[in-house]
């Protein structure tokens, strides 16, 4: 199913007016401290993997069947960056080491480190993009593609051209980039500032969603996290920062755009949140700053 019918869509969201049910459901066994220091997440088959990038890194594995499991990641003595989680073609789960120049890959069942791979340049994140493990460079050369992918059967990938500004520092800031959770063939990514959303898929140009102004959101760095399903995009909305020069804090509101009806719902969250993990057209699983994991949205039709 094509998520967006046009190459560019202008999207205006008023997140000040709450609608629907402003509730989240507590989940047994997922209270405070469940996730130590949220570093990213990944949906693979029937399982959701949540990275705890604390001093003792681990994976929280939530399955549709069976109890949740916690897997300690061994050999990650230098720590792990809070910059995403990817699944390589060999099935290992990978994250960046501090500094972003090395990829650490682990056995998803035992947590043992399988390999350590030196990357061609410093990376700012690793994710699964349209089903392929991918990383983004700190681009500053205008027009150069920022997204690199793991070599899998020679499949091409749509380029994400770097945006440029005068000077290396401003160029790096303009090209701060992140990706969220999507479907098997489409992934929502975004430039942090100025905010611009791209829907990436293999073998097709990126589809862009312009975000000129979002009422009630931070004027700078407004998006904290994105999640795309076949029918909707979920937005975790950043609060305005305490000082204009600071990046906005954790998200405290949730916005939901239904592309079929072109309607938006907004939800007040019970606390500051770090990331959107998994969801459908009605609800989304969220990791909060205190480490709790809750399902939020229209709970009348929610799955457990």
Can you tell me about this structure?
The radius of gyration is 18 Å and the shape is globular. It has one helix and 23 strands. With 304 residues, the chain is mainly beta. It has a seven-stranded antiparallel sheet, with no helix packed on it. Strands 1-17-16-15-14 form a five-stranded mixed sheet, with no helix packed on it. The two termini are 26 Å apart. Residues 1-21 have low confidence and may be disordered.
Any descriptors?
1 helix; seven-stranded antiparallel β-sheet; single chain; five-stranded mixed β-sheet; mainly beta; globular; 304 residues
What is this structure's SSE topology?
Blueprint: E1 8-10, E2 24-25, E3 38-44, E4 47-52, E5 58-63, E6 69-72, E7 86-87, E8 93-96, E9 102-106, E10 113-118, E11 123-129, E12 132-137, E13 147-149, H1 168-174, E14 177-179, E15 187-191, E16 196-200, E17 207-210, E18 223-228, E19 232-238, E20 251-258, E21 263-279, E22 283-288, E23 293-297
Parallel strand pairs: 1-17
Antiparallel strand pairs: 2-23, 3-4, 4-5, 5-6, 7-8, 8-9, 9-10, 11-12, 12-13, 14-15, 15-16, 16-17, 18-19, 19-20, 20-21, 21-22, 22-23
């Amino acid at each position: 199913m094509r998520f967006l019918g046009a190459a560019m869509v202008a999207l205006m969201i008023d997140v000040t007016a709450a609608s629907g049910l402003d509730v989240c459901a507590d989940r047994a066994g997922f209270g405070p401290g469940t996730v130590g220091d949220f570093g990213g997440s990944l949906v693979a088959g029937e399982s959701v993997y949540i990275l705890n990038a604390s001093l003792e890194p681990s994976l929280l594995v939530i399955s549709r069947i069976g109890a949740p499991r916690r897997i300690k990641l061994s050999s990650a003595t230098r720590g792990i960056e809070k910059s995403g989680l990817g699944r390589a073609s060999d099935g290992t789960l990978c994250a960046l080491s501090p500094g972003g120049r090395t990829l650490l890959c682990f056995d998803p069942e035992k947590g043992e480190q399988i390999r350590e791979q030196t990357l061609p340049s410093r990376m700012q994140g690793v994710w699964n993009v349209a089903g392929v493990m991918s990383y983004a460079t700190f681009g500053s050369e205008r027009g150069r593609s920022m997204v690199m992918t793991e070599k899998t059967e020679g499949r091409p990938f749509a380029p994400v051209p770097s945006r440029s500004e005068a000077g290396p520092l401003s160029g790096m800031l303009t090209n701060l980039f992140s990706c969220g959770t999507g479907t098997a063939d489409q992934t929502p990514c975004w430039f942090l500032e100025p905010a611009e959303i791209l829907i990436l898929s293999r073998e097709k140009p990126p589809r862009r969603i312009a975000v000129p102004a979002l009422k009630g959101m931070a004027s700078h760095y407004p998006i904290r996290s994105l999640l795309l399903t076949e029918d909707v995009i979920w937005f975790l909305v950043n609060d305005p920062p305490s000082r204009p020069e600071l990046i906005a804090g954790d998200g405290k509101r949730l916005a939901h755009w239904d592309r079929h009806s072109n309607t938006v719902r907004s939800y007040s969250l019970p606390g500051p949140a770090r990331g959107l993990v998994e969801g459908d057209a009605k609800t989304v699983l969220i990791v909060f700053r205190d480490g709790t994991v809750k399902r939020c949205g229209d709970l009348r039709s929610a799955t457990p």
